[in-house]
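anyone else get weird line breaks when pasting these?? whatever heres mine. first is seq + tokens for prot A
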Amino acid sequence: MDDLQWLATGLRALAPSCGPVRLVSVDGHAGSGKSTFAARLAAALGTESDPAPVLHLDDLASHAEPFAWTDRMLAEVIAPLSEGRAAHYAPYDWDAHRFTAPRSLPLAPVILIEGVGAGRRALRPRLAGQFWMDRDASSSWQRGRERDGEALTAFWDGWTTAETQHFSADPSRPYAQALVQERPEGYAVLPGLDIRSELNRFITLSNRT
């Protein structure tokens, strides 16, 4: 995880954005590599055996409401964290088609929110930093389809339509402070379009040295 240690250092230096926590979003198209990047960044923020907490939005989304989870996110996660308390949310079981027993999200200096729509409008006031996985929609979706196999073809057909509608109404990329590009070894992290942010300035300076 040494390639992301510099980035972890920068995130820890950001001002808290949600109570004592620095909430950081990792957004991008389905299949763009968000989960893998978030896992590696979480390990850099902590250790491989004790990484920083990651909230996966697949746990809040459901078949019926793939993107209509904002109210639950605000009530179950944002509100308690902003008050300095651990959050508790009910993760969705995609195989059983139901929400399951509540899971705890502990307080930490940095918490990552990973998933499509993590940088949405309703959450941005509480985010200390916003990453966008800089991979186009078509190649991301193709990779996701190949990963999940033919059994989930119908799901992917519906998902790509819903994702397109979501980002048309509530785009994340224009507000990202950092663009993440996959490389054969590791990642390139480039300044995003939000040039006024503390994270953007940190990445800009880091790329100059």
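and prot B, same format (seq, then tokens)
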Amino acid sequence: MSFAERVNWLRLTRTDGIGPVTFRRLIARYGDAALALDRVREFTNSARRIRVPTRADAEAELDAADRVGARAIALCEEDYPSLLREIPDAPPMLFVVGDANLFARRSIAIVGARNASLAGRKMAATLAADLGAAGVAIVSGLARGIDGAAHEASLATGAIAAVAGGVDVIYPPEHGELMRNIAERGAIVSERAPGAQPTARDFPRRNRLISGLSLGVIVVEAAARSGTLITARCALEQGRDVFAVPGSPIDPRAAGANRLLQQGAGLITCATDVLEAIATPLGRNGGLARFQFDEDALGGNADVHQTADDDPRRREIRNVVLDLLGPTPAYRDDILRAVDEPASLVLDALVELTLAGDIDEREGGAFVRVNF
């Protein structure tokens, strides 16, 4: 990818109202980011002027990445993590510090409580070390507790940290040395711009990266209501395995993990349990080196010169989709099943309604109606 193409991909990624699902549809429809940027404003109404970052904005972000030793890797490039590429809301652009070759290895996520017990930390470290010795990279979120223990134990064998802020932003503060060690010996990944401070909404988005980068997720201690369970939910939605380490029923830090086991998560007590479970690939797509759009599903041969309002049928489909949506998030696949029209036209309607400000794209490829 040329520098100019990378700039345009980043501009489209950062354009108001365009999430990962909408981004994919725009690229499928128009072929490249430059043309998509030129056509984006066709779908906006006079009451909503979306902000499209300038070339200078995108170049400044890429320059900031260079200054902190990060690479910007696009979804279409060979060294983009192949597992992450499979999820429907994979970030169009990732910033990576460290060894991107780790993404080619089998990987498992280990996550859990921030206020973890000593036993929980020891279990996380043991699993990470033993899986690492078997050639498995360990993914986690650089949080306190279980995450930190898993990262520390996998530094020598392959540690991958998915962070909520920029790849250069130390969070939590006490993990500064750990983050530097991962940058030198493993890899740090983020979809946020370098220098971006993490906000509350960034952590659930980060959680989908943790599971998306992994064949499966191991939960070691989690309360009944915790961010760890969001990661487990993301894994299930992405078709990844979910494992849990059983804990004492009188320890509230084990309530979430025990509940996952009741619901069918794989019970593990050692690394061998995990290695046996992932021995059979999860319907891998043959390790495609390049990102490929499904032309039949995405309508890649659509007329790129057709505007949003010049076809009565397209207007009708937009109205049908809009009527189906409300304040409760609805996932793309559910919308496609509910609307008895070609998938390519329904996906076009989602793009057009998003850019018009009638609906918003949320985490996980879900959409909500915002204009009633």
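btw re prot B: Residues 282-309 have pLDDT under 50 and may be disordered. The chain is about 40% helix and 15% strand.
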